[in-house]
Amino acid sequence: MNASGELRIAGLDVSRETFEALEAFAALVRRWNPAVNLVSATSLSHLFDRHIVDSAQLYKLAPTATQNWVDLGSGGGFPGLVIAILAKGQNSDLRITLVESDARKATFLRQAAQSLGLQVCVLNDRIESIPQLGADVLSARALAPLVGLLPFAERHLRSDGSAIFPKGARFAEELTEARKSWDFEVDTHSSLSEPGSAVLVIRKIRRAKND
């Protein structure tokens, strides 16, 4: 904690209130997990570092002018609800939409958001079935390989928007495979929570001319 009473999470200065909200969210995940399987049982003992810090690192990679953030396959709220907690702590008016096809997980997302006083929209539907969302930022964590995520980005991301995808140690292979069908610009950031992994920030996504 620094002299102003702030704490640091994933390179971000957050207030004690925000830190406590993140801890309260972690407690909700632990409480619901036996019934809904929000995260793997083996990762529960490392929930803060493995899931919350991993999600929080996405927040600072978003453009400062972001107004509409869409999280696909939100599952247990990673990163969507973590992003919402951080935005609330900074008094941001960021609009956050969570898309989750599993009804039980969507119920968790709604109840967790209500408990934590978060203003989010939860869509319980399949990603390919919902209308275009016009996102400034599109995120997805542990949802699909990059080549499977880019069609979702093409559909739901604004033309000047950014897709932010955390990826594992094989991210370079995913990029190579995706470039066979897609053209895009990408910035690669080393993961703060998983050595050898990365967070990809992708822009100007379009289908390759030879596709």
Characterise this structure.
The chain is α/β, with parallel strands linked by helices and 211 residues long. The protein has one domain: 3-Layer(aba) Sandwich (Rossmann fold). 35% of the residues lie in helices and 27% in strands. The chain has helices spanning 16-36, 47-56, 80-89, 103-116, 146-156, 171-178, and strands at 7-9, 12-14, 68-72, 95-99, 120-123, 135-140, 157-167, 182-190, 198-207. The strands form 2 sheets. The protein has a 7-stranded mixed sheet, sandwiched between helices. A hairpin with a 7-residue loop joins β8 and β9 (198-207). The chain is globular, with a radius of gyration of 17 Å. 41% of the residues are buried. Mean pLDDT is 93; it is low at 1-5.
Which descriptors apply to this entry?
35% helix, seven-stranded mixed beta sheet, 27% strand, Rossmann fold, disordered N terminus, 211 residues
Please describe the topology of this protein.
Layout: E1 7-9, E2 12-14, H1 16-36, H2 47-56, E3 68-72, H3 80-89, E4 95-99, H4 103-116, E5 120-123, E6 135-140, H5 146-156, E7 157-167, H6 171-178, E8 182-190, E9 198-207
Parallel strand pairs: 3-4, 3-6, 4-5, 6-7
Antiparallel strand pairs: 1-2, 7-9, 8-9
Helix pairs in contact: 1-3, 1-4, 5-6
Distance between the termini: 51 Å
Shape: globular
Structure class: alpha/beta
- CATH architecture annotation: 3-Layer(aba) Sandwich
What is the CATH homology-level superfamily? Vaccinia Virus protein VP39
**Could you tell me the number of beta strands?**
9
Summarize the amount of helix as a percent range: 25-40%
Can you give the mean pLDDT? 93
Strand order, biggest sheet?
5-4-3-6-7-9-8
Number of folding domains? 1
SSE string, helices as H and strands as E: EEHHEHEHEEHEHEE
The CATH C-level class name: Alpha Beta
Low-confidence stretches: 1-5
